[in-house]
Amino acid sequence: MSHLEELTLYLNILGGPIFIDGNHLDNRILIHMPQLHTFTYYISTENAITDPVIHPSNADIQRTFKNANHGKVSCMVDYFDCFVVMCHVFSLPFKFNRLKDITNNFPNMLFNTVTYLMVRDKVGFKHEFFVRLARSFPFVKHLSVSNIRSPFLKFDERHLINDDWSSIVKYAHLISLDIENVNSHYIEHFLNETKTHLPCLIQLKIRYNLLEIVTQNFTRDATRCNCAKVKRLIVKDSIVYSKDVYRYFPSLSI
């Protein structure tokens, strides 16, 4: 590979011993490619935390990218409980169409090539997170959300639930939404047209019992519009849908 001039690398490493940072790229990869002049990359590592004292931050990882061959770079470091740390490093501008395991920690920048996005976190997503998400990922078509925590867990924050919706979030190109592994708060966020606008949604993955609750047994007007074009409803258990379901989802395949 000593004559390689261009390299595009998309890499997910699960359970590796170390972060892939700038030093690792230099000493293990780029040292073997002296002719390389174009390096486009996204590298994600997920590791068990073996030393609770060592907690590198975004800034710590960013400082390891000193080589000019790295180009402009951004990174995200996230800690899940006391056991797992995840690190994403990528060249700028971001060139790939798929991005996984994004948290509240994602940078304020434009990811206009991303069409498939998965978000998760150990803390709740407030409305501002989804405003940022729609702004940073304007062309997302497939979105998966995993978060079982309400954004307002403390008793003295409960009154903020109805005040959190400051503006309507629009996902202009979203066709597939997976909200199966979420708190009901996020189902309310996505299906209520006064909070989110989903003009192209045709596939919805969700827990049926929470769908019943949020739509008030398929009678609620505020959640009707975002369900109107759904052609495929994916639920965990085998269910024979009632006439009320088909009336609420008029585009649903029989």
3D architecture notes:
Helix content is 17%, strand content 27%. The protein is α/β, with parallel strands linked by helices and 254 residues long. It has two domains: 1-94, no CATH class; 97-254, Alpha-Beta Horseshoe (Leucine-rich repeat, LRR (right-handed beta-alpha superhelix)), CATH 3.80.10. A six-stranded parallel sheet has the order 5-6-7-9-11-12, with helices on one face. The radius of gyration is 21 Å and the shape is elongated. The termini are far apart. Residues 155-159 have low confidence and may be disordered.
Describe how the helices and strands are arranged.
Blueprint: E1 6-14, H1 22-29, E2 38-48, H2 58-62, E3 73-80, E4 84-91, E5 98-102, E6 116-120, H3 127-136, E7 142-147, E8 169-170, E9 176-182, H4 184-191, E10 196-197, E11 203-205, H5 208-214, E12 232-234, H6 243-248
Parallel strand pairs: 1-2, 5-6, 6-7, 7-9, 8-10, 9-11, 11-12
Antiparallel strand pairs: 2-4, 3-4
Poorly predicted runs of 5 or more residues = 155-159
Q: From the alpha carbons, calculate the radius of gyration and give it in angstroms.
A: 21 Å
CATH architecture of the largest domain: Alpha-Beta Horseshoe
User: The CATH topology of the largest domain is what?
Assistant: Leucine-rich repeat, LRR (right-handed beta-alpha superhelix)
Strand order of the largest sheet: 5-6-7-9-11-12
Q: In one word, what is the shape?
A: elongated
| Main beta-sheet strand count, sense and barrel state | 6 strands, parallel
**Domain unit count:** 2
The helix/strand order is: EHEHEEEEHEEEHEEHEH
Mean pLDDT: 89
**Percent helix among the residues?**
10-25%
Number of helices: 6
The overall strand count is 12
Q: How far is the N terminus from the C terminus?
A: 54 Å
